[in-house]
């Protein structure tokens, strides 16, 4: 099959990045339909799988730690590698394909896990594979679309995310209620409805990503550099990217000692006071950041000894140094967006890991995972997750229009407030049949979270570092999830008498705080 004509075949000298047609944007984003199949099956069913295999409610967050931790490690690495890749399949597409193949294999294996810890390990592998496929897609839109079309491109991704998640989240319910597939199983076994849903989802993921790989092309690094020079001359991007000062060897070394000491002290306090073991996630994360900075100081010392300037040899200092150094020299807009992402994703993680437990306990009155009431409630949660993703798909069609009317930042604030109110209302709605109503607000917020921050960010990033900065941006998605995994179980157990419904209320409040925070983000603007 011959590949379609792409604007990259056109001369770029003296021209801004051309706009793409609807179908070109459609093809470039279609792979997200498949990626979201895997992501939605994971979100809607993994807590259920963990509880079925014997996990207690307060253990669920620590088991979920695989998902954000793998994203923290994998996304900046893949982003850096894709920035520096160019071959027959381009920059980003090789990673789409590899990630899709690995994710499909993991999805097939996950529902056949015989024990809890094997399931936790498979979650780790599955999430790492999803991240390999997903991270370059964000940079892919930034690479291929001009600034004016980026909100549309990311909204298109949100649309496919919503459609994919609707079908994937609802699959166990559909299989049970329309095809008579059993949704219960003996103790320690995964229900057939969940297993068959995973098999179908894996096949869809591979086919959808494969379509994007064969139906799209990419701009070469040289073409992207030419476009970037023109964008810098027409916007305030250049001043936004200009770093204050290069971080020195001494700064890295001093910071390394501080982070190591704080992490070690925190770990000793947890051990000495016999505090909740989930707090080790935080303490060891703080501790590990110290040696990473010490390594960066060591690399800078090597530069100094070789009598070469940092700028001349930076790209030869290796992946770890480049990722950490870029993190300390993020554009100002990216640092401000980090605050928005922190509160948004803490709220989302609260919803993902506690909605099943909250609904089955608060609305169905049971925590017995073998009971019919629990499994009926868990199936209904799958439908609720499908509904919020469906509303997200619809919202994705409207968000670009709203953004044109009131701007990206105000649009995002409004959408996040809708989501926050929706999560809080779970406590007040007693009829589980009406829980789809708050999912309207959650869906609006979800579509916005998946599109607007990336549109704001892409406009503030240099083209040659689009991938690594998109990967680093994932830190501010992962860190709040790590924090949530560390403290939510403890907060729910100690502060709310083990009632998971309060995790959703907490998430709703934080989502509204994120909405206020976005108003303080300063992004590059068009100057002529």
Would you write up a description of this structure?
The chain has helices at 22-52, 60-63, 66-83, 93-109, 116-144, 150-179, 192-215, 221-234, 237-241, 249-272, 280-305, 310-313, 319-328, 332-362, 372-406, 408-424, 438-449, 452-458, 466-473, 475-495, 501-517. By secondary structure, the chain is mainly alpha-helical. α1 runs antiparallel to α15, α11 (280-305) packs across α13 and α14 runs parallel beside α20. The radius of gyration is 23 Å and the shape is globular. It starts with 21 loop residues before the first helix and ends in an 11-residue tail after the last helix.
**Beta-strand percentage range:** under 5%
What is the number of helices?
21
Content-based structural category? mainly alpha
Biggest sheet details: none
The number of distinct β-strands equals 0
> Alpha-carbon distance between the termini?
42 Å
Shape field: globular
Low-confidence stretches: 1-13, 236-244
Q: Name the helix and strand elements from N-terminus to C-terminus, one letter apiece.
A: HHHHHHHHHHHHHHHHHHHHH
Nearest-angstrom radius of gyration?
23 Å
Helix content estimate: over 70%
The average pLDDT is: 82
Summary?
The chain is mostly helical.
SSE topology:
Layout: H1 22-52, H2 60-63, H3 66-83, H4 93-109, H5 116-144, H6 150-179, H7 192-215, H8 221-234, H9 237-241, H10 249-272, H11 280-305, H12 310-313, H13 319-328, H14 332-362, H15 372-406, H16 408-424, H17 438-449, H18 452-458, H19 466-473, H20 475-495, H21 501-517
């Amino acid at each position: 099959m011959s590949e379609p004509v792409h604007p990259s075949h056109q001369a770029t000298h003296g021209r801004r990045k051309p706009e793409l047609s609807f179908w070109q944007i459609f093809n470039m984003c279609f792979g997200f339909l498949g990626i979201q199949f895997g992501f939605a099956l994971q979100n809607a069913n993994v807590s259920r799988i963990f509880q079925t295999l014997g996990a207690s409610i307060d253990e669920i967050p620590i088991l979920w730690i695989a998902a954000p931790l793998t994203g923290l490690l994998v996304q900046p690495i893949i982003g850096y590698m894709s920035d520096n890749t160019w071959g027959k399949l381009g920059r980003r597409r090789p990673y789409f394909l590899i990630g899709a193949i690995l994710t499909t294999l993991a999805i097939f294996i996950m529902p056949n896990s015989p024990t809890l810890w094997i399931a936790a390990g498979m979650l780790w592998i599955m999430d790492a594979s999803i991240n390999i496929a997903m991270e370059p897609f964000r940079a892919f839109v930034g690479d291929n679309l001009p600034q004016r079309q980026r909100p549309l491109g990311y909204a298109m991704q949100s649309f496919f995310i919503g459609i994919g998640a609707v079908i994937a989240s609802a699959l166990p319910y559909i299989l049970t209620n329309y095809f008579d597939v059993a949704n219960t199983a003996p103790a320690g076994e995964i229900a057939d409805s969940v297993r068959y849903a995973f098999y179908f989802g894996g096949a869809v993921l591979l086919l959808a990503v494969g379509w994007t790989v064969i139906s799209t092309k990419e701009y070469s690094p040289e073409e992207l550099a030419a476009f970037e020079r023109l964008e810098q001359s027409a916007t305030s991007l250049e001043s936004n990217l200009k770093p204050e000062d290069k971080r020195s060897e001494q700064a890295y070394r001093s910071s390394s000692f501080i982070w190591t000491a704080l992490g070690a002290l925190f770990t000793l306090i947890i051990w000495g006071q016999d505090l909740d073991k989930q707090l080790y996630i935080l303490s060891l994360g703080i501790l590990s950041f110290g040696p990473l900075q010490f390594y960066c100081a060591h690399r800078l010392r090597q530069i100094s000894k070789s009598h070469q300037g940092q700028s001349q040899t930076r790209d030869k200092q290796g992946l770890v140094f480049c990722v950490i150094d870029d993190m300390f020299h993020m554009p100002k807009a990216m640092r401000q967006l980090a605050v928005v992402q922190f509160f948004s994703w803490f709220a989302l993680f609260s919803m993902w890991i506690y909605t099943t437990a909250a609904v089955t306990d608060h609305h169905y009155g049971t925590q017995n995972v073998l009971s019919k009431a629990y499994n009926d409630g868990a199936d209904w949660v799958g439908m609720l997750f499908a509904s919020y993703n469906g509303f997200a798909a619809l919202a994705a069609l409207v968000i670009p229009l709203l953004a044109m009317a009131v701007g990206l930042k105000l649009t995002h604030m409004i959408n996040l407030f809708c989501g926050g109110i929706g999560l809080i209302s779970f406590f007040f709605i007693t009829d589980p049949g009406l829980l789809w109503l708050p999912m309207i607000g959650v869906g609006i917020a979800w579509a916005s979270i998946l599109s607007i921050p990336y549109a704001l960010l892409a406009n503030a990033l240099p083209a040659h570092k689009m991938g690594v900065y998109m990967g680093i941006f994932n830190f501010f998605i992962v860190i709040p999830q790590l924090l949530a995994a560390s403290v939510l179980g403890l907060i729910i157990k100690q502060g709310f008498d083990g009632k998971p419904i309060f995790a959703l209320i907490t998430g709703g409040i934080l989502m509204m705080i994120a909405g206020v925070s976005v108003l303080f983000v300063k992004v590059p603007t068009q100057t002529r």
